[in-house]
Structures are given as C-alpha cells and as structure tokens.
Amino acid sequence: MAESKIASPGFLEEIESESQQKVRVCYQCGKCSAGCPVGYAMDLLPNQVIRLVQLGLKDEVLSCATIWLCASCETCATRCPREIEIVRVMDVLRRRSTSEGYTSPVREVPIFVSTFINNLKRFGRLYEAGFVGVYNLLSGHLTKDLDKVPMILMKRKLAFFPPRIKGISKIRAMIRRAEEIEKQ
Ligand code: SF4
Ligand code: SF4
Question: CA 42, 113, 1: angle at the middle one, nearest 5?
C-alpha cells in the first residue's frame, strides 16, 4: 500500500457518482466484512475500503489488493443495512486504478481479465485451451495445471481446436461498445 495519507478532494463524490452508490451513509457496522468469503485473503476488508473512500484516501484504496480480489459475489450487498452495493463500488475502483496507472498488487488478475477479453474478441466465445496457454505464458505460471491436460482431453472436457461461431462481428462490436462505455 502507498505511504501517502493525503486526502483527494472530490474523490468520494466521484466514486459515488460513478457507482451510483451512497458510500457516505456507511456507518462501519462491519456486516459486509463479516460475511465476505474472500476477506481472509484481502489486505483491506470491504468496510475498510468503504471508509478509505469516505475519507478520500485515493492512493491507499486504488493501490490495495482487495479491489482485485473481490469475487463480485454480492454477499456484502445482501447484508448491508444501508443498502450499499459494494460490488459496484469495487468495479469503479478497479477501473479507476487501471485508468490512473496504479499497479495491481495481484498481477494475475488484470492478466486474467485481459487474456479472457482478447480470447472472446478473437473467437467469439471462450477457447479454453488457448486461454489457459496464453494466461500461463503471460502470468509466468508456465506449467500450471499442465499435468491435468491429458485427463481433460481424454474426457473431452476441453476442445483442442478453437470454436467457430456465427455472428462473431456482432460479439466484437458488443465488446468494443462495452470498452467505450468503460472509458467514459
Ligand atoms: S455493511 Fe454496509 S453499513 Fe455496514 S460497514 Fe459494510 S458497507 Fe458499511
Ligand atoms: S462482493 Fe466482494 S466484497 Fe462483497 S462479499 Fe463478495 S467478495 Fe466480498
């Protein structure tokens, strides 16, 4: 986490506006964190992320691992007495972290996401064998799960060749549009 503890004026308002969530009404009851299934692996608990946003501590929140580890399971939203959808806040924080050049402490996650999207753009739907190969290469985990490949192929759980689908240009246009919206 970055050392700076300087509040960024307007950060809370920006995150609230982009996520459409009233982060300021959180009263730190901790129910979100108590139910989070990924909390054990996070460097900041979900309620702490929300508190940092309230305080405008942008560097701390945009450089934390938690925003990359959140599994978007929505457990926190169902438990929150203030009806804050933390998933939407996490989404905005991840986007801001990327667009503002922060380095994710969990480098595999952005690699996983970009490999997944590029695979979809290329084939129209997930070509799993290609995805695993590229992900392993880029993440440096070259031999990860290689031992399982013969069994998976034998059981025909993984196609050896890429899928051929109709309307691939429409899928590409859809992804392009989503990327444009994300940049807005
Ligand atoms: S459950 Fe809601 S009100 Fe309670 S700490 Fe989490 S975000 Fe804040
Ligand atoms: S959505 Fe994210 S923060 Fe909320 S409970 Fe699930 S993993 Fe935890």
Answer: 35
